[in-house]
């Protein structure tokens, strides 16, 4: 990505999406998250006018489906049964990030011609490189019709999002629920309080090498149980680089941790007012049920 002008790329990323920003994509490269070992091979496309970028795309030649949060293994199996190669394929996405956003980055959002040219170039690239298909992951709703017009199939998935409907306190949120749900949540929270758990919110300079090392260990512990170690080894490099960038770009890369000795969550928080914290003594990593629901 260093072959592309940073400021011109970010002008096309007009929504200010962190996960399609130049700095984030470069961080992925610098941390060796995008290479043969992980199956992500960057291919950046840019459209120029008067030697200035008018539109651009971050695309990746993929030799597996890991790190996409889109489960298309059944398609790969069908290809194999038909004697066809599903891999390599071309993925337009923010790697390792299941967050919706614009994937065709255009300086002028109304410039449909620029988008059409980019899509045409993507299709030609796939033909010339003998790639099976193009996948554009986690697009915005307002992009659906554009992709339909360009002969893409739309695959729908589900995500669960919490919206704060002006709740002043957690009790306000509980009051909005049915009696059965409210009772279940209160029971869970009381159970965890009795276990003696400390919840700490760490921000900025509080996120030191020890915190990152704990994050790394918990990440490795999780994927050892469920998946492979392919992506675990690059995480500690990624984390260190990410928080090196944060002080330089506090508005774009502001990140907080919600941390307990049982599990670690990486959050990006804007304009948050945190409640007064409760202090409990720490407990062992692996033995506590409901630890993720407590953090949520």
Strand-helix topology:
Layout: H1 6-12, H2 22-30, E1 40-49, E2 52-62, H3 73-81, E3 89-92, E4 105-106, H4 112-129, E5 134-136, H5 144-149, H6 170-175, H7 179-195, E6 200-203, H8 209-226, H9 235-245, E7 256-260, E8 263-267, H10 291-295
Parallel strand pairs: 3-5
Antiparallel strand pairs: 1-2, 2-3, 2-4, 6-7, 7-8
Helix pairs in contact: 2-9, 8-9
What low-confidence regions span 5 or more consecutive residues with pLDDT below 50? 247-261, 271-287
Which word captures the global form?
Answer: globular
In helices, the fraction of residues equals 25-40%
Alpha-beta classification: alpha+beta
H-E order? HHEEHEEHEHHHEHHEEH
Distance linking N and C termini: 35 Å
**What portion of residues belong to β-strands?**
5-15%
Major sheet summary line: 5 strands, mixed
Number of strands: 8
From the alpha carbons, calculate the radius of gyration and give it in angstroms: 22 Å
Number of helices: 10
Mean pLDDT: 79
Characterize the structure shown:
With 296 residues, the chain is an alpha+beta fold. The protein is built from ten helices and eight strands. It has helices at residues 6-12, 22-30, 73-81, 112-129, 144-149, 170-175, 179-195, 209-226, 235-245, 291-295; strands spanning 40-49, 52-62, 89-92, 105-106, 134-136, 200-203, 256-260, 263-267. The strands form two sheets. Strands 1, 2, 3, 4 and 5 form a five-stranded mixed beta sheet that branches. A three-stranded antiparallel beta sheet has the order 6-7-8. Strand 7 (256-260) and strand 8 (263-267) form a beta hairpin. Helix 2 runs antiparallel to helix 9 and helix 8 (209-226) packs antiparallel against helix 9. The model is unreliable at 247-261 and 271-287 (pLDDT under 50).
